[in-house]
Amino acid sequence: MRTHRFHSRATLWNLATGAFVVLLAGCQDSPEAADLVLTGGKVVTMAAGQPEAEAIAVSGYRIVAVGSEDEIQKYIGPDTEVIDLRGGLAIPGFIEGHGHWMGLGNAQMILDLTVAENWNDIVAMVGEAAARARPGEWITGRGWHQEKWNEVPTPNVDGVPLHAGLSMVSPNNPVNLTHASGHASFANSAALEAAGIGAGTADPPGGTILRDARGNATGLLRETAQRLVGAAISRSEESMTAEELRARAVQQVELAGQDALSKGVTSFHDAGSSFATIDFLRELDEADELPVRLYVMVRRESNEAMDEKLPDYRIIADGNGHLTVRSIKRQIDGALGSHGAWLLEPYVDLRRGEGDAGLVLETVEDITRTAEIAIKHGFQLNTHAIGARANREVLDIYEKVFATATDATDLRWRIEHAQHIHPDDVPRFAELGVIAAMQGIHATSDGPWIDQRLGKERARVQSYLWRTLIDSGVTITNGTDVPVEDIDPLASYYATVSRMMRTGERLTPEERMTRMEALASYTINGAYAAFEEDTKGSLEPGKLADITVLSRDILTIPEAEILDTDVLYTIVGGEVRFRR
Fold first, then answer.
1. Is the pTM of this model over 0.85?
2. Is residue 419 located within the same domain as residue 567?
3. pLDDT tens digits along 271-286
4. Residue 474 near residue 437, CB atoms below 8 Å
């Protein structure tokens, strides 16, 4: 069983001297045999001093040597496992820079609506599920996106259908279908009734109950309005025993791990989890049952609770530990697709009034208080901001709090997503040292309809400004926001370097990253954004042996072939946890 503790000066010294001993061992003529050797391929290290190599030696959970075939040959003993890469590419393990860990597992236990081509497909899927379900049993799913359907449903409001057809096929079962973005959901009549949503129900702060011309709820719930149905689902689960709830959570972790490892992900930034979920994850970590390394952000806890409990929940992974907790997640606005992103100007396709510029989910005042608490307890603050107004407001909050925290250094606070930024605010990221935690796949997934929301010129100068941010000196991380998108880093990497949309057109191609920049965004930058660049993110002696092996060299092959690349091996702490 592992114990977790703060890195004291003594601990840091022991780690440093341990790494020094490892380096000395690597210089001896006859080093001890390694546990694992990777050979027969190309190694891209992401380390400045030795950018490329041919082989890697691993002992325990750390890398002991990186070098040529001949140099690593001496680490092979009778008990060494030798993996012939057969020309494959070994890179630092992919770091998912922003996802939802338990949501990834849960998404594989409910209806997968990403496969639906239109609303009729979704109604059919729900009808089949209702035929199998017990009366009163909730039917849930995720992944629909009206902008990706091959036809507009009729009738509709804002391009989204009314619940009548869905309610007809599921009269005895409440249904809740979450939008691909997670920022809206669709409910049938039984779910609306269970949630107490009727003609007189007011919109909650930061949310919208979409209504038809007669004032009746259509079934679409934007942003915080989803919580009304969420509360009804929670009430339905009150009959489940603690053992049943835990078994379900364990299954979610196992499913999330299988998916992540099969895609080459070795570390995952979870955005974020409650104290109760962190307690559960800590139990799994202490029992060595976390499949990948988790960097967890505290989420959905009050400022009062965080001020009291954060010191007890600060966890810095020691040795081969898989759990770190040292950051907080807040969310100031919603998503562009659901018209919830907070903009500086109104949406061009939703002008019902001069104030139609998005939604504020969590107030500036409340997030400012969180920022003060984060500074007080030495926690990183990571705030969801998608719209240009949201990004500006978060930068304002950070600047204000930084100015009062004169003794705080190396904060590395982040803005999660940072999708649409006014050009005047781009330099402020670098000036304040704010990390842009972006997702490459979002740009090409959203690209075909961004102009509809923002207008062509505003989209051109504000949307997904990767090149502009990098040239301004900003650190960018990469990811998928899974389960919003598939966790596949190769798809997101391809989107980052190509900006190729499903339409066959490129979204503002001048904002592309180079392939090496994109790889950095998925490796060493992700480690830096979690204060872990000394232990992961590059392949160097003394660092954790977190390695992903790909079937092709994504740095040099023709662009179109990147998506044909397979993950051959995923290695976490020297243990091969996935083999194709």
1. yes
2. no
3. 999 999 999 999 999 9
4. no
By the 8 A CB rule, do 38 and 55 touch?
Answer: yes
For residue 130, the 8-state DSSP code is H
> Residue 255 domain-assigned?
no
CA 69 vs CA 57, 74, 76, 551: distances in Å: 10, 9, 11, 19
Using the structure block, give the residue that is written with the tokens 């570390």: 267
Top-confidence residue, 314 or 350: 314
Which strands make up the sheet holding 207-211, listed edge to edge? 111-112, 139-144, 175-179, 184-187, 217-223, 207-211
Dihedral sign, CA of 91, 92, 93, 97? negative
pLDDT of res. 406 = 78
- What is the pLDDT, as a whole number, of residue 352? 60
How many CA atoms within 13 Å lie on the side-chain side of 25? 21
For the cut 90, the answer to whether the pLDDT of residue 123 exceeds it is yes
Fill in the DSSP letter of residue 389.
Answer: H
CATH number where 41 lies: 2.30.40.10
Looking at the fold, whether 190 and 339 belong to one and the same domain comes out as no
**Cβ 423 vs Cβ 344: under 8 Å:** no
Angle at 217 between CA 120 and CA 343, to 5 degrees: 90
User: Over the range 146-178, which residues count as b (16 or more CB within 10 Å of their CB) and which as e?
Assistant: bebbeeebeeeeeebbbbebbbebbeebbbbbb
Of the chain, the percentage scoring pLDDT greater than 90 comes to 89
Q: What would the pLDDT profile of 505-518 be if each residue is shown by its tens digit?
A: 999 999 999 999 99
The DSSP line for 162-200 is: -SHHHHHH-TTS-EEEEETTSSEEEE-HHHHHHTT--TT
524 sits in which H/E element: helix 524-528
Does residue 248 contact residue 108 with C-beta atoms inside 8 Å?
no
Domain contains 4: no
- For 311, 338, 467, the CA distances from 529, given in Å and listed in that order, are 21, 28, 19
One domain for residues 521 and 548: no
Classify burial at 134, counting beta carbons within 10 Å of its beta carbon; exposed 0-12, middle 13-18, buried 19 or more: exposed
Domain count, the chain: 3
Task: Identify the residue whose tokens are 């107030």.
Answer: 363
Structure tokens at 396: 């304002």
Report how far residue 216's alpha carbon sits from residue 374's, in angstroms, rounded to the nearest whole number: 43
Highest mean pLDDT among 86-90, 110-114, 152-156: 86-90
> What angle separates helix 242-262 from helix 275-286, to the nearest 10 degrees?
70
**pLDDT average, residue stretch 142-158:** 91
Per-residue model confidence (pLDDT) at position 29: 62
Q: Are residues 543 and 532 in the same domain?
A: no
Q: How confident is the prediction for the chain on average, in pLDDT? A: 93
Asked if 519 and 555 touch (Cβ cutoff 8 Å), the reply is: yes
Q: Does 519 lie in the same domain as 413?
A: yes
Q: Residue 45: which domain range?
A: 31-93+538-580
Q: How many CB atoms lie within 10 A of CB 307?
A: 16
* Section 471-500 average pLDDT: 98
- Structure token pair of residue 305: 């609770």
